[in-house]
Write a structure and sequence with these properties.
204 residues, alpha+beta, 5-stranded antiparallel β-sheet, 4-stranded mixed β-sheet, 3 helices, 14 strands
Amino acid sequence: MLELSGKVKKIQLLTGDKGSYNPIVISLEMNLLNKGNVPIILLRDQPICINANVTKTLLDMKNESNFVYNLASSSDFVSANEWKEFKRELNKDIPPSTMTSIVSPMNSITYGYDLRLNLPQEERSLNSYRSELSFKQLQELSPVLLRLSGCDFRNYGIENESSKNRSDFANQLKKRWHQYGALWLDLIDSEPIELDFSSANFGT
């Protein structure tokens, strides 16, 4: 089992940008802990997280209508030609050290992660039941909670689950490498991270 947690190192308001949004860069220190009893094989040492949700409380995270900010993005796109080359490199009896990372039981890896949010200068209604709060409102509410979700440690195109060839190959690797550890093919959400927007620094 993997646990992804983090803490805020710095929050910076980018004052050089103009428009109806306040661009914010949140510098995070993330920690990935293997809480299980077998090694975990990762196809990348840092995930791509496709969602960032901000809420007032932990309970609010269970209901999308309670999100005060939500960032949705997409994972990396790997072309057919790139996929063929990656498949050739990964198609080994032993997990290739140049393309995989292994996290031993009760060990962890730490990495930096910069998250950019474009916060509206004024509260913005998204639909009849939900709106995004402004930067000023979030400052007044702080501390709030951030959760990164849909974090994907897969790489090299095998995350394209709509392609049977790619998903079959991923499962082949999982069986082939089982003596070295469990190949992680699932998405993961982070633990809640406390955010204090009132501590934001101004920069360019």
